[in-house]
Specification:
Length: 457
C-alpha cells in the first residue's frame, strides 16, 4: 500500500514505526525503504516510501517538533543512489542541524555536497555562513572567494559583496586540534657530520649532537574566546599549543602561547592587536619564555583575492643560554587568490630580525613560501615550496665563519574526506627540508611524514 493511501490512523502508526527505527534507516532499496506498519485490523503491512515521500515526512516531522523522526528520514534519503536527491537531503539536513546549533555537523553535510557537486554555489555560500557562525572567518572568506571565482549572477554577486564586507566571526568560544603520527629522519635538525670545524680544530661530535631519527606524535591545536564590546569591536583571547613527542623524551619539543587583545572592524578590513606570552620546553625542561605584542590585519582585494599581514615583537629569555636573550621582530605578508571553486594559490613573504645579547646569535632572516590547493572529488591536495636565507651579524668566537644559511622546503599533503569519521578526516603530509649552512652544526637534511586526522570541512 502506498503511503498516500494510508488512513490517518495508519499514518500515525507509520510515524511511530519510523521513530522506533530512528537512525537505523541507512540502507536504501531501489524501490524505497520498507517499514512495518499495522493496519486497523492489527495485521502488519509493508510500506515503501520513495525519496520524495521521505523528504515530505521529514519536513512534517520537523515542523511538528519530532526532530528524531525528521533527522532519521533525512539521513535515509542521503543513501539514495541519485546524486541530486541525496544532495537535496544533505542540504535540508544541514539547515535542520543549523537550527539546532549543530554547526560542525552542518558544515560536514555541506562539504559532502560540494565534494560531489562543486558548482553548487548556493551550498558554498551557505558553508561560508556556517563557518562564520563557527568563528572560522578565514575559512568563510575562502569559501566566498571560491564561489565568486566561478562567477555569480550580478545581483547575487552584489549581495555576496555586502555579506563579505559585514563578515565577522560570531562564535563566542571554540577550539580545534590536529593529531598525527610523524616519522622523522632528523628530529633534532642536526648535522650528519662526525666532526665540527672550529678555530681550535675539528671537534668530534657525540651521538646526541648528530642527526637522530624517530617516530613522534605531533599535536597542534588552539582554543579561543570572544567577548563583543560593540558592533565593531570584540575582545579576543586565544591559547595555542604544539607538541612533538617521542619515545625518547630528550627530544620532546612543546610550545604554548596565550594572547589577549581587541578585534576591530573597519569596512571590509579586519584588524586585531594582541599581547601575551610564549613558552617553550625542550627535553622536558624549560627552554625559553617571551613576552609578545602583535598586530594582524586582513584586507580583501576584489572578490577573489585577499591580503593578510602580521607584525610582532617579542622579548626573549633563553633559559639555556643567556647570550641568546634579547628581542625579535617579525613581519609577514600573505596573498591568496581563488582560481576556481576548487583551487587556489598564494604566496607568503616573511622577515625576521633577532637582536640578542651576543651579536654572533643576532640574525637577519627572510623567506618566501608559495602554496596551492586543489580539490579532486573528496580529496584536497595541498602543495608548498619555500626558500629562505639567514645571516648572522658576526661570527661566534668558536667558529671560523659567520653563520649564513639557505633553507629549502617542499611539502605535499592530502586530506581524504571519503574516509571521514564523524567531523574528522584522515590526512597525510610529506615534507623535505634542506638547510645549507656555512657552519656544519646547522647544516642538515630531514624528511618528515605525518599521518593524522583533521577537520573534514
Amino acid at each position: 500500500m502506498r503511503a498516500s493511501r494510508l488512513s490517518q490512523h495508519g499514518r500515525n502508526r507509520l510515524i511511530f514505526t519510523c521513530y522506533a527505527i530512528s537512525w537505523a534507516i541507512a540502507i536504501w532499496l531501489p524501490s524505497g525503504p520498507a517499514f512495518a506498519a499495522r493496519s486497523d485490523s492489527g495485521e502488519e503491512q509493508a510500506v515503501r516510501l520513495d525519496a520524495g515521500q521521505l523528504l515530505e515526512l521529514a519536513e512534517r516531522a520537523q515542523k511538528s517538533g519530532d526532530f528524531s523522526i525528521a533527522e532519521a528520514a533525512y539521513r535515509a534519503v542521503i543513501a539514495d543512489p541519485v546524486v541530486e536527491v541525496r544532495s537535496e537531503a544533505r542540504f535540508r539536513l544541514a539547515n535542520f542541524l543549523m537550527g539546532q546549533s549543530r554547526l560542525v555537523e552542518a558544515a560536514v553535510m555541506l562539504r559532502a555536497i560540494l565534494d560531489e557537486q562543486p558548482q553548487a554555489q548556493r551550498v558554498r555560500l551557505e558553508l561560508a555562513h556556517v563557518l562564520d557562525l563557527m568563528g572560522d572567518e578565514a575559512g568563510a572568506r575562502r569559501a566566498l572567494r571560491e564561489a565568486q571565482a566561478d562567477g555569480l549572477p550580478p545581483d547575487v554577486a552584489r549581495l555576496v559583496d555586502r555579506y563579505s564586507a559585514a563578515l565577522r566571526a560570531q562564535k563566542p568560544v571554540g577550539a580545534n586540534i590536529d593529531i598525527a603520527l610523524a616519522p622523522d629522519s632528523n628530529i633534532n635538525r642536526a648535522t650528519r657530520s662526525d666532526t665540527l670545524g672550529t678555530v681550535l680544530g675539528d671537534f668530534i661530535l657525540d651521538e646526541d649532537a648528530k642527526q637522530r631519527s624517530g617516530l613522534g606524535l605531533a599535536l597542534r591545536g588552539q582554543a579561543y574566546a570572544r567577548l563583543p564590546l560593540d558592533s565593531k569591536m570584540n575582545l579576543f583571547g586565544r591559547i595555542s599549543g604544539s607538541a612533538d613527542l617521542y619515545g625518547d623524551g630528550e627530544f620532546n619539543d612543546i610550545a604554548l602561547s596565550a594572547t589577549l587583545g581587541p578585534e576591530l572592524r573597519s569596512g571590509a578590513d579586519r584588524i586585531s592587536m594582541e599581547a601575551g606570552g610564549l613558552w617553550r620546553w625542550f627535553g622536558g625542561e624549560a627552554y625559553s619564555s617571551a613576552a609578545t605584542v602583535g598586530m594582524n590585519f586582513v584586507h580583501p582585494l576584489g572578490r577573489i583575492a585577499s591580503l593578510r599581514g602580521n607584525a610582532g615583537v617579542a622579548l626573549i629569555d633563553n633559559r639555556f643560554n643567556s647570550l641568546q636573550d634579547g628581542r625579535t621582530y617579525s613581519a609577514s605578508l600573505s596573498y591568496e587568490r581563488a582560481l576556481s571553486s576548487r583551487a587556489g594559490i598564494g604566496i607568503t613573504l616573511s622577515a625576521d630580525r633577532q637582536t640578542l645579547r651576543d651579536p654572533g646569535y643576532s640574525t637577519w632572516a627572510g623567506q618566501a613560501t608559495f602554496f596551492g590547493y586543489r580539490e579532486v572529488g573528496t580529496v584536497t591536495l595541498v602543495a608548498t615550496i619555500g626558500y629562505g636565507q639567514l645571516k648572522a651579524d658576526e661570527r661566534l668566537l668558536l667558529f671560523p665563519e659567520v653563520r649564513s644559511d639557505r633553507l629549502y622546503r617542499v611539502s605535499l599533503g592530502a586530506t581524504f574526506r571519503n574516509f571521514r569519521i564523524g567531523s574528522f578526516a584522515p590526512f597525510v603530509r610529506a615534507t623535505y627540508e634542506r638547510n645549507k649552512s656555512t657552519l656544519e652544526f646547522h647544516d642538515y637534511r630531514k624528511v618528515r611524514t605525518e599521518f593524522g586526522i583533521t577537520r573534514a570541512f
